[in-house]
Amino acid sequence: MYRPVYFQENNRAVLVAFIKNNSFAILTGLTDQFPVATQIPVEIEEKDGQLFLIGHLMKHTDHHTAFEKNDKVLVLFNGPHCFVSAAWYQNPASASTWNYMTVQAKGKIFFTDEKETRAIIQQITEKYEGFDSPASFDRMEDDYINKMLKAIVGFRIAIESIEGVFKLSQNKTKEEQLNIIQELKKSQDQQAQLIALAMESNTNHPTT
Fold first, then answer.
1. What is the pTM of this model?
2. What is the tens place of the pLDDT at every residue in 32-64?
3. Total domains, the chain
């Protein structure tokens, strides 16, 4: 992970909020030959000071098999990102770059029994569908839910370390940062707009 000190975000509350706002994660692990990965929605919760990620995945996939053999996992959360041109610097004759926001969580994965798996599915479904939706969890037939439970398994990941890199041109002068923000706001790219907003709200001071 590329993490110069001026790009690091170490505030736990900020990192947790970022995960909540960017909860479609990349869950990675290792087999004997190659890394494996899958993209899934997860929830983060805290119990007795310990952070956990919860979710569910299909059984008998390459990643399920890998996690059964090796419980150490890495979870990636990606936020907005965009190109930053060196033309916006005081010295344009230098390298352009890419600004981005990302959080990595490492920990151990534990698979849940059927009862807890059902509760995890209900929690995530209710978050996105709500209670009034015709696709709400409470409107699903038990036969359908029970059939689905045979094909999936819930999990909890006990987070052992969490790191954030919010690369927002903190290594540039204040004048350069303001110019970058102005240029990004001109873009029709929503990612660029979000990075501009993140730069405006960033409290870290430039290093030069």
1. 0.92
2. 889 999 999 999 999 999 999 999 999 999 999
3. 1
